[in-house]
Amino acid sequence: MPRSRINGNFIDKTFSIVANILLGIIPTTSGEKKAFTYYRDEKDPYDRSFILYNIGLIHTSNGEHTKALEYYFRALERNPFLPQAFNNMAVICHYVRLSLL
Questions:
Q1: What is residue 42's three-state secondary structure?
Q2: Which of 10, 50, 55, 75 is the most exposed place for a label (fewest CB within 10 A)?
Q3: Distance of alpha carbon 72 from alpha carbon 55, whole angstroms
Q4: CA–CA separation, 55 and 51 (whole Å)
Q5: Quick one: pLDDT at residue 5?
Q6: pLDDT recorded at residue 41
């Protein structure tokens, strides 16, 4: 399993544990708990693709182009019809090419 995937699973598991602890401590309504349970159990690759795309945007804005490209690729693996990811990848490639000249 690729290291980035292991780290992603670790982050997901850590978030779930922390969120479960917070739900036990912070007073929440049953509707809020139900919404969180639905969110936590959601495994839809289409939804995950937008999350990965947004992480790519963050890396792009921080100038971490290699990491951004990794997240755009991962988003496209889950949703190959994500034109904004293709566009951002092209912009990064164009930018890197110009900076090499």
A1: coil
A2: 10
A3: 8
A4: 6
A5: 47
A6: 66
